Amino acid sequence: MSRADRPIGVFDSGMGGLTVIHALRQLVPQEELVYLGDTARLPYGSKSHHTIERYTLQMGELLQRHDPKLIVIACNTASAHGLPALQAVSPCPVIGVIEPGAEAAAAVPGPVGVIGTLATVGSRAYETAILRRDPSKIIHSAACPLLVPLAEEGWFDDPVTDTICRRYLDLLPPEVKTVVLGCTHYPTLLPSLERCRPGTLWIDSGRVTAKAVDRLLQGTLGYRTASARGELRVQLTDASSRLKEVGSRFLEEALGEVEVVDI
Question: Which positions are catalytic?
Answer without folding.
Answer: 75, 183
